[in-house]
Automatic annotation (TrEMBL):
Compartments (UniProt record): Cytoplasm
Signal sequence annotation: none
Organism for this UniProt entry: Thiospirochaeta perfilievii
Top-level enzyme category: transferase
Designated name of the protein: Homoserine O-acetyltransferase
Gene: metA
Amino acid sequence: MPIKIKDKLPAIEILNSENIFVMTETRAVSQDIRPLKIAILNLMPKKVTTETHLLRLLSNTPLQLEVDLLHPKSHKSKNTDHRHLEYFYKTFQDIKGKNYDGLIITGAPVETLEFEKVDYWEELKEIMDWSKDHVTSTLHICWGALAGLYYHFGVDKYQTPEKISGIYKHSVENKFSPIARGFDDNFLAPHSRHTEILRKEVEKVSALEIVSESEEAGIYIVTSNDGKQIFVTGHSEYDPLTLKEEYERDIKVDPEKTVIPKNYFPDDDPNKTPVVNWRGHANLLFLNWLNYYVYQMTPYELNK
């Protein structure tokens, strides 16, 4: 898919090396097409890595996308060069007068904190409130999903005894949900989190539907009945070595509490190279969101 992004974004070179077609801004403006306008609120510390993960999946469609990268103004990033943020990113203040076809809110390594203790929580609440009237559909990922469920519907998160980390088997609860079209009866997806949501609390909210879950990792996909909010508690966008890098990071901090990601390393041996078995699901998940919840629903003239 042609993705309209700034010409020098580091992800372009990486994706081109993987034979993924990315159209830069210079080429995109020559096409007489109304691109879908997608905003990505990147809350992850290593923003270049997350940009690449998401743009890789957004590339798997013939639709043209125009992507705006956002970061919270109320948080100072310690892991991304400020020059990268200044050149490639915008803040909510820059775009709050605009409308978007889709918004992606990423995960963030703050899940052990109460939501109200996160330094950009007030800004995130403002963005989520704005999204209700200015975005056709929002895809929330991992902590972003927990934050969205809490803010929009009052569904709280709970600490798990140990980190949920690895590749887990999932089932589809509602095969007629557009987000699950084409999913296998059982499919695999990565998770990496310390908290979870409870089925009994989600089921109390009539505006929500549980679409998919895992016996080991818990609820995976929840949608709002109007399709404006999609919540995915896992990280289908992760590349082959992301869980390995997280494991190596965690074991340096606290080796006694760090668990080997489940069903990830062959023979549970961290010295062996992981095999990717979730790529097909990841591509279909993002394709379904873009097609059924964004493209099929959004007006041609966004201001209307």
